[in-house]
Design a protein that fits this description.
Chain lengths: 250, 435
């Protein structure tokens, strides 16, 4: 589903990604682990299309289509979703207004009709109940005054509502206590499906004991330096990143 | 000292000639009021003749240099007959509001005879030829011209303790087929403990270089509660000068919101005076400037008594080659202890050529006060834009959503949902035309 080939990207002339190659199949949950500064978050931003990063080489394909030529909103309409590490606060925009604008913008781009108001409210409420998000929170301005855990749950709510095919989760576990982590993980697990893939970016193994991945990739110095099954995460938990940090991939 | 003979600009000379012509037209006035009005007009014009139009070296006009900008003084507008006006559409751009409508065309109150019976109980309306200011600074050139050249003052009086449920909507219209100047004056006296929402709208034709100079004074009695919304929707070639004087009695609570949607050049000045202790004031502003438009808000909040609270929140979106100005000064007099004042002006620059001048000032002479100010100028936040776009919202829509949320903050404090929605609609309309 997602094909990343020899991806190089830089910010302000400083290379961050130095040849990432990775593929995620439909139905797969792939994890990317790596030390701070290895380029994990940059990878997620480049996939989603943040324009301060310049891609100097390589390709990112979603079902064969080149994402790099698309604006972020077009990528979203194609079924890409990035759950942000630090979801942003948007004062003055009610959460419901935002959700509806996002959903309808995607539908419009795909040539679908706007969602019926009753269906919309039903879908939002269903996702909110699953994630323990109160109706009162939905009435507030987007993410304004939300705790870190509430913001992450709101990201997963958006993911549930928008029904993307390819979900990238950028350090969704950061800043979560164990209860919030469980709720978020259950939310993600509930969305696992044959035709949907996940790329779970994390620094710690603990998220992966809740969202059990099919594949684990280790990133260091802008490259994937090791790939394997879930056992790679366990190994890392025991040994740490010292091996990778000390000898950046040749 | 040698007397200096000022060199008068063409516009200054024309304004003085207009006053000479108007003199003959005005009612001679009976004993008392009429005479007082005459004297203050003469004094105002004399003050103007001495100083002339203010220019960039006059601090309050630094960014809106009237000597330079007002090249021609358009002829005074003809007054419509007093009977016209009931059939006139006014303020429709705000949608259907449930309000008591008062229409002023070219500075003249329409349908005065019938109006009295249509207004709610406890509201009196009257006109007088006395235009002397009671709150505004008579030495200010714009106020002086307004005093000298306004033909009448419309006075609205809200009786003590009365709560007026629906807004009083004063609709100022320019009825113009060619360049003309309108001078007008409105005084609002809010009785002790009374509560009222006052809406002012300003409209005029597009494509005609109309000029206006409107003075409004609102005196709020002790314990009164006033919400005041002013919408400038004048034509796209309009040159609009306006002055608002506010006087706040003990324990009053007042909010005045200025929204700029129209005019090629506009300058709105506010003088807010705390006359009684413990009053609360909110001054808010929404500016939507585009094309080659210039919008100036210059205000002075004068804490003359202890225990006052003032909050200013001005939001300006500046697009294309437009230019915004905010000058705000909070004065805390020596005995005005326990004053709490906060002022914020934020501008969103939407194009490379847009500009904004922010100048907040504090003059504090008391020692036990809390005062602060902030001013920001910036582009749309790229991170917020990316966040919205990553959810599928196209760039123009994402921008509109962010501008809407930026400007919308300044209207949130209005208690009337109907007015909040109407003003929100104006912002949405502007954003739609922008896209």
């Amino acid at each position: 589903m997602l094909e990343i080939r020899n991806l190089h990207a830089e910010i302000d002339g400083k290379p961050i990604l130095k040849g990432v190659t990775l593929s995620v199949k439909a139905g797969e949950v792939a994890a990317i682990m790596g030390p701070n500064g290895s380029g994990k978050s940059t990878l997620s931003y480049v996939i989603a299309g943040k324009d301060e990063y310049e891609v100097t080489k390589g390709e990112v394909l979603l079902d064969g289509e080149n994402l790099l030529e698309m604006e972020p909103d077009e990528r979203a309409a194609k079924g890409l979703f990035l759950a942000f590490q630090y979801p942003l606060e948007i004062p003055g925009v009610a959460t419901m207004t935002f959700l509806k604008a996002a959903l309808n913008a995607q539908r419009k781009k795909r040539g679908e009709d706007e969602i019926a108001p009753a269906d919309f409210i039903r879908s939002v409420n269903r996702a909110a109940d699953m994630l323990g998000i109160s109706r009162e929170m939905l009435r507030r301005a987007l993410n304004v005054g939300f705790s870190g855990g509430e913001k992450k749950r709101m990201e997963i709510l958006q993911m549930a509502l928008l029904e993307p095919r390819m979900c990238v989760l950028d350090e969704t576990d950061s800043g979560l206590d164990i209860d919030a982590l469980r709720i978020v993980a259950e939310g993600v697990n509930g969305l696992r499906a044959k035709n949907r893939a996940f790329l779970v970016i994390t620094h710690y193994q603990r998220l992966l004991s809740h969202i059990v991945p099919d594949t684990v990739h280790v990133m260091a110095d802008g490259r994937i330096v090791k790939s394997g099954g879930p056992e790679v995460a366990t190994e890392l938990e025991a040994k740490g990143y010292a091996d990778f940090a000390a000898q950046p991939a040749a | 000292m040698t007397a200096l003979t000022p060199i008068r600009t063409k516009a200054e000379t024309a304004l003085m000639a207009q006053f000479d012509a108007l003199r003959g037209e005005l009612p001679k006035g009976g004993p008392g009021k009429g005479d007082a009005g005459k004297a203050s007009r003469e004094a105002a014009m004399a003050a103007f003749a001495t100083r002339g139009l203010p220019h960039r070296r006059v601090e309050a006009y630094h960014y809106t240099d009237l000597r330079n900008l007002l090249r021609e003084a358009a002829p005074l507008a003809r007054l419509p007959s007093g009977k016209a006006g009931r059939s006139v559409e006014a303020g429709r751009f705000l949608g259907d509001l449930s309000a008591h409508e008062i229409i002023i065309i070219n500075g003249r109150l329409m349908d005065a005879a019938n109006l009295a019976s249509q207004l709610p109980k406890g509201v009196r309306i009257a006109t007088t030829s006395d235009t002397a200011p009671t709150i505004l600074d008579e030495n200010d050139a714009v106020v002086a011209l307004n005093t000298a050249l306004s033909r009448e003052t419309v006075t609205l009086e809200i009786a003590k303790g009365v709560k007026i449920e629906r807004p009083l909507h004063v609709a100022f219209l320019q009825d113009a087929g060619a360049p003309q100047a309108v001078y007008g004056r409105l005084n609002v006296l809010v009785g002790e403990g009374a509560s009222v929402t006052l809406l002012e709208t300003y409209e005029g034709p597009n494509g005609i270089a109309t000029q206006s100079n409107i003075g409004v004074e609102i005196a709020a009695g002790d314990g009164a509660s006033v919400e005041h919304v002013r919408v400038n929707a004048e034509g796209d070639k309009a040159f609009s000068l306006s002055s608002l004087g506010l006087s706040l009695g003990r324990g009053t609570s007042a909010l005045s919101l200025n929204l700029i949607l129209g005019s090629l050049v506009s300058r709105h000045q506010i003088l807010a005076r705390f006359a009684g202790e413990g009053a609360k004031l909110n001054l808010n502003g929404v500016g939507m400037l585009d094309g080659d438009r210039h919008g100036d808000v210059t205000l002075v909040v004068d804490h003359a008594v202890p225990g006052g609270e003032s909050r200013e929140l001005f939001k300006t979106a500046v697009d294309q080659r437009a230019n915004g100005v905010f000058q705000g000064k909070i004065i805390v007099r020596p005995h005005a202890q326990k004053t709490d004042g906060k002022m914020m002006s934020a501008a969103l620059l939407l194009s490379e050529d847009a500009s904004m001048n922010n100048k907040p000032e504090l003059e504090i002479f008391a020692d036990d006060v809390q005062c602060g100010h902030g001013a920001t100028c910036g582009a749309l936040d790229d991170n917020l834009l990316f966040y919205l776009m990553a959810r599928g919202i196209p760039r123009p829509d994402a921008q509109a959503l962010l501008i809407r949320s930026f400007l919308g903050e300044a209207i949130e404090e209005l208690s009337s949902e109907e007015l909040r929605e109407a003003l929100g609609g104006l912002i949405d309309g502007w954003l739609m035309r922008r896209a």
